[in-house]
Design a protein that fits this description.
Elements: H1 2-19, E1 22-23, H2 29-33, H3 40-53, H4 72-77, E2 81-82, H5 91-120
Parallel strand pairs: 1-2
């Protein structure tokens, strides 16, 4: 049972991450600000750069934004960014993602408790 719960939790996390990418070509500053490490100033810089230079062709192009660069910070947030396909995550979607993570964690904890009870018998 524990392996099954762990597998389900892992699949849920993969699914959540697949839908959590913020499209830097359509996102508002508020939506970009939802990404850990990007505050209001960097979010505004991304939108300003996009407005001045046109849409980003690759996620790596976000490194050209003043204040971001092509260093470790970009590598850290790259997985949360997209340049096409998915629409930007809305604030309500971000809250739903947090709720889904909490529910998955609770389910895993409950599965462990149930397995512990079964082992005691």
């Amino acid at each position: 049972m524990n392996k099954f719960a762990a597998m389900m939790f892992g699949l849920l996390m993969l699914a959540i991450n697949a839908f959590a990418a913020v499209n830097v070509n359509t996102a508002t500053p508020e939506q970009l600000d939802e990404i850990k490490g990007i505050g209001p100033a960097k979010a505004k810089a991304i939108v300003d750069y996009r407005t001045k230079n046109g849409p980003f062709k690759t996620v790596d192009d976000v490194g050209n934004v003043p204040g971001i660069g092509h260093g470790p910070f970009l590598e850290k947030i790259k997985g949360e960014l997209s340049v096409n396909g998915e629409k930007a995550v809305k604030a309500s979607d971000a809250k739903s993602e947090k709720q889904a993570k909490a529910a998955a964690a609770k389910a895993e904890k409950d599965a462990k408790k149930a397995e512990a009870k079964t082992e005691k018998k």
